[in-house]
User: Which sequence fits this backbone?
């Protein structure tokens, strides 16, 4: 997961790529070059002055110093409609370091406030998808770190304008290949425009070969010519316009609250229905939850989910400004307490993971504030927080209405809307319905095929003692121990699959106390006659990946099974019905990212992660596998 930063030289206060032997922007005026080449020749001022759509998407090949993004953002702020959202997608193989980015952008004081907003979020850029939100989420940057010929095929977006930047074809021939032009065409909307500083024949012929209309125009400064043009047709599936942005979400835990927030910030009116009297009463009701990515070496989908989900939650928490009592940024220490964990941690550290660094037993003890017998790895940005406080912060939005003490028992599709019913009455209806109801998701006829598994977990609340108050960080083995909060340490959690009882058990307390011997052997706990605790039922899946996405019409699948060679767009969907569930013990990491995925699918936004990862979260995957449709089981299923 190591990021291969760009190697820069500075010549006359201008950044110069050592690898490609080329400049990042014009020595005459990089700002004027961007405005002329990319903004003017994509006709952005005229298009944004007359914009009727809610979303405008720019895609760029080569993020570089971020100058093109900042110029587009600056123009957008000046002329775009206030209710519209700018999505700016950029791919970059060698991101510049933060210090180089700051130095480069300091050349343009007129962009200082935007530059500061960008540099505050520009960190931990390991390979993959990174999403940054600005201006109350109305300007969204999705930065794809990796080779453009690998990232664009994994991108799901509908592009209005292309900034074809990057080093010249003569100096970077590996980028300007035929697959690049094919992917640009696949992602382009009808009449999408492009502009590029180069006039090289390989670029002109490549774009023309995939259907672009290309013309040469005078270049900027000393550059004699450049290329611009448009895409007269499109292979994009045209999605019907949403008549009314109304959605119902069932479930008031982390998944439901995160999804409500993701929809509300996009301008949707959301009704959140919870069967309890208040939010976060099931697994999200534990007094403390630990936020950290459970990672291994390599680029598995589980690792992608953990890493990108962790970063997404950290950025979300910063935007929400959760109160001091709601979160403690103390770091998380994972101990090599057995051979398996030692091997996992060694492999993670060998991969140069950006989140963690290795520690021996002595250093681990210093960090933890108590004597430990094992080393491991420390995740400085790990934290513990109050999940219920997070749920309330997420739902504190003018577009969200909370309806408690109502249990939905039945779903019904009527006149292109979803109705939700209790025993006798309809509780509400909307064109979009999202189930964030954990294991209860399987109780509905339409989603009974979404195989979820209940797992009971019990935590123990240990009274803090003089010696235990020294603990400064979360300590993890097969369980976890938090620093003292409100006079107690949170110790847990037990793991009991297919057990749906929630009474607090002495034997589970004993299981947790056995874990304490690995977690903090020097701590001699005070054990009152009646140890406090809490049991809740988690919701997980057999492949440990959550469910996030659109629900298929299972009756149609069974009555007329598709061929294995079929494509996902040929499957009949339950239009407007989505799921965000199955997060197990990883709700703080997984649920907000899955909420962003679901909201992006519904709203027609560029997806925040790769198509492969979204396909792996397909909520219909277990039924499709049973039917022998392995390829379809891991397909991205988009709205009709």
Assistant:
């Amino acid at each position: 997961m190591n990021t291969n930063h760009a190697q820069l030289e500075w010549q006359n206060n201008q950044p110069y790529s050592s690898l490609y032997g080329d400049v990042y922007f014009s020595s005459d005026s990089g700002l004027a070059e961007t405005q002329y080449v990319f903004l003017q020749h994509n006709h952005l001022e005229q298009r944004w002055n007359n914009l009727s759509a809610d979303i405008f998407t720019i895609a760029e090949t080569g993020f570089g110093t971020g100058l093109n993004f900042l110029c587009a953002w600056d123009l957008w702020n000046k002329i775009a409609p206030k209710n519209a959202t700018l999505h700016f997608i950029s791919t970059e193989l060698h991101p510049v370091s933060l210090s180089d980015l700051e130095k480069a952008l300091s050349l343009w004081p007129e962009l200082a406030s935007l530059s500061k907003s960008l540099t505050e979020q520009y960190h931990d850029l390991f390979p993959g998808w990174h999403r940054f939100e600005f201006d109350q989420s109305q300007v969204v940057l999705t930065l794809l770190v990796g080779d453009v010929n690998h990232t664009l095929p994994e991108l799901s977006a509908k592009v209005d304008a292309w900034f074809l930047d990057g080093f010249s074809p003569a100096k970077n021939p590996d980028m300007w290949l035929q697959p690049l032009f094919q992917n640009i065409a696949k992602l382009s909307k009808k009449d999408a425009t492009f502009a590029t500083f180069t006039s090289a024949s390989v670029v002109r012929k490549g774009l023309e070969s995939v259907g672009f209309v290309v013309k040469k125009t005078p270049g900027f400064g000393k550059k004699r010519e450049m290329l611009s043009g448009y895409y007269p047709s499109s292979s994009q599936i045209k999605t019907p316009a949403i008549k009314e942005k109304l959605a119902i979400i069932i479930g008031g835990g982390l998944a439901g609250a995160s999804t409500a927030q993701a929809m509300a910030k996009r301008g949707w009116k959301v009704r959140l229905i919870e069967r309890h009297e208040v939010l976060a009463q099931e697994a999200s009701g534990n007094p403390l939850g630990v936020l950290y990515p459970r990672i291994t070496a390599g680029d598995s989908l589980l690792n992608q989910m953990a890493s990108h989900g962790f970063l997404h939650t950290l950025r979300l928490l910063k935007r929400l400004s959760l109160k001091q009592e709601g979160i403690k940024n103390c770091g998380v220490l994972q101990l090599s307490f057995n051979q398996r964990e030692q091997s996992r941690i060694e492999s993670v550290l060998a991969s140069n993971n950006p989140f963690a660094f290795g520690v021996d037993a002595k250093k681990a003890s210093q960090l933890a504030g108590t004597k430990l017998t094992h080393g491991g790895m420390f995740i400085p940005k790990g934290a513990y927080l109050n999940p219920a406080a997070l749920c309330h912060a997420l739902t504190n939005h003018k577009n969200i209405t909370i309806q408690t003490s109502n249990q939905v028992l039945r779903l019904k599709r009527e006149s292109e809307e979803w109705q939700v019913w209790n025993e006798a009455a309809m509780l509400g209806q909307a064109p979009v319905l999202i189930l964030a109801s954990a294991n209860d998701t399987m109780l509905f006829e339409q989603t009974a095929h979404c195989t979820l598994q209940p797992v009971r977990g019990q935590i123990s609340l240990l009274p803090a003692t003089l010696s235990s108050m020294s603990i400064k960080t979360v300590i993890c083995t097969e369980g976890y121990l938090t620093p003292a909060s409100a006079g107690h340490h949170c110790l847990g959690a037990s793991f009991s699959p297919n057990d749906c009882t929630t009474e607090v058990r002495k034997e589970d307390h004993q299981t947790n106390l056995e874990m304490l011997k690995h977690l903090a052997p020097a701590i001699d706990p005070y054990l009152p006659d009646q140890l406090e605790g809490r049991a809740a039922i988690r919701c997980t899946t057999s492949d440990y990946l959550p469910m996030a996405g659109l629900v298929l019409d299972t009756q149609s699948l069974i009555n007329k099974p598709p061929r294995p060679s079929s494509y996902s767009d040929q499957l009949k969907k339950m239009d407007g019905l989505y799921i965000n569930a199955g997060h197990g013990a990883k709700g703080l990491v997984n649920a907000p990212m899955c909420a962003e995925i679901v909201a992006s699918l519904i709203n027609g936004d560029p997806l925040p992660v790769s198509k492969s990862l979204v396909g792996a979260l397909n909520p219909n995957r277990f039924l499709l596998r049973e039917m022998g449709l392995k390829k379809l089981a891991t397909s991205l299923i988009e709205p009709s």
